[in-house]
Design brief:
This is Heavy metal-responsive transcriptional regulator. It comes from Trichocoleus desertorum GB2-A4. Pfam families: MerR (PF00376), MerR-DNA-bind (PF09278). InterPro entries: DNA-bd_dom_put_sf, MerR-type_HTH_dom, MerR_fam, Tscrpt_reg_MerR_DNA-bd. It is elongated, with a radius of gyration of 25 Å. The longest helix has 34 residues. It starts with a helix and ends with a helix. It is mainly alpha-helical and 137 residues long.
């Protein structure tokens, strides 16, 4: 069987890539990975290029991209085009999101520092107060 010789079984892909079999199956289910067939025993066979794909998926996830976004890029790639323009737009969006999160965290930090600067251990009415710092009494 020629496909079996050229293909990599899911177990060997998992072992070589460090990606669990369950994750590989999930990626296949989402359309991120495609098999090139199955062995007579029913094991999935993958093209040797699967390692490049898995590496791309893992790196893109570390950069904060969702599996849906990654699938879009791989779909463009599978149509014979480089998805770099699509990736650039998504990464620019991620940078804008991070800038917004940083601003929100800076506001939160200032609020927390303000609460801590007014630290009071004994509330005026302890029976009706849980913690005056958070409650603002």
């Amino acid at each position: 069987m020629i496909a079996q010789e050229a293909g990599k079984q899911i177990g060997s892909v998992a072992k070589a890539s460090g990606v669990p079999i369950k994750t590989i199956r999930y990626y296949e289910e989402l359309g991120l990975l495609k098999t090139i067939g199955r062995t007579e025993g029913g094991y999935r066979l993958f093209d040797p290029g699967i390692f490049t794909r898995l590496s791309f998926i893992k790196r893109a996830q570390k950069l904060g991209l969702s599996l849906a976004e990654i699938k879009e890029f791989l779909d463009v790639h599978d149509q014979g085009e480089l998805p770099c323009d699509h990736v650039k737009v998504k990464l620019e969006d991620k940078v804008a999101e991070i800038d917004q999160q940083i601003q929100q965290l800076q506001v939160l930090k200032l609020e927390l520092e303000g609460l801590l600067s007014g630290w009071e251990t004994r509330p005026a009415n302890p029976e009706t107060t849980i913690c005056p710092i958070i409650q603002g009494y």
